[in-house]
Amino acid sequence: MHPLLSKLLRVEDHLAEDLFGGPRVLKMSWIINLQKGGTLPFVLGLMFWFDNWSTTAWVYAALHGSYGLVWLLKDRTFPDPNWEKYVTFGGAAVAWAFILGPYWLAPFLLVSGHVEATPARIGVATLIYALGVVLMTGADAQKYFTLRERRGLITDGFFARVRHPNYLGEMMLYASFAMLAQHWAPWAVLAWVWTGLFLPRILRKEASMARYPEWTTYRAKTGLLLPRLW
After folding, report:
1. Whole-model pTM over 0.85
2. Residue 26, class by beta-carbon neighbours within 10 Å (0-12 exposed, 13-18 middle, 19+ buried)?
3. Which helix (H) or strand (E) holds 26?
4. Cα–Cα distance between 131 and 140 in angstroms, integer?
5. In Å, what is the CA distance from 57 to each residue of 40, 46, 63, 94, 180?
6. Which of 19, 25, 107, 206 has the least C-beta neighbours within 10 A?
7. Kindly report the CA angle at 9 between 5 and 11, in degrees rounded to 5?
8. Is 223 helix (H, G, I), strand (E, B) or coil?
9. CA-CA distance, 55 to 35, in Å (whole number)?
10. 71-108 burial by CB neighbour count: b if 16+ within 10 A, else e?
11. Exposed / middle / buried, residue 65 (Cβ in 10 Å: 0-12, 13-18, 19+)
């Protein structure tokens, strides 16, 4: 792993886990689940507060809200071990301030601004969302149950053509929310998360997988996030 990337990841891990020090009493999954599970009531609350019961608002609530419920079901059935670690109150605050909280900017802008989306935009966003949810949950499920039985590279199923389909799925579904909001700010949030959070962790995972002897062959036939076309 490149020394600069390693240093960046150490800084991010410190901010998210140990900021201000003190006891680690909060499990990261609790913090994430609070935001994910709270999205549906949050959006419905916005709709009530701003008296916006439009079709677009309801579609957004259904999409983003259902994703939160899917996440809770996923966490209950096949939890991600990366989120089982305990963090300090400072680390929890960082997660909320710089990642989880900004995810709610899209519904706030959409509902408060009474944004209306065309049927075509709603249809495309729903299509991207559905594919993204399947990719994210399916890949996470395959990884969880496969690694429970054996360690090593996973090179079939969702991982046969793409090395990080779970990240691709999450990027797709959040992109669908930004599409409906029709504002630059949610895209800026996603750009920050994708480049500042997702990309370093993807590269760390790549460095970890490189220790397996079949890595070179697997990497040659797969794409990082999109399938190879040649």
Report:
1. yes
2. middle
3. strand 26-27
4. 14
5. 11, 9, 10, 29, 9
6. 25
7. 120
8. strand
9. 24
10. beebbeeeeeeeeeeebbebbbbbbeebbbebbbbbbb
11. buried
Joined together, the tokens standing for residue 115 give: 């944004």
Backbone angles phi, psi at 164, to 5 degrees: -135, 60
* Domain boundaries of the chain, sorted by first residue: 3-221
Structure tokens at 207: 């460095």
SS3 labels along 149-218? HCCCCCCCHHHCCECCHHHHHHHHHHHHHHHHHCCHHHHHHHHHHHHHHHHHHHHHHHHHHCCCCCHHHH
Residues in the chain: 230
- Dig out the tokens for 213 from the structure: 């002897």
| 139-142: long-range contacts, CB 8 A cutoff, minimum separation 24 | 139/165, 139/166, 139/169, 140/74, 140/78, 140/80, 140/166, 141/74, 141/77, 141/78
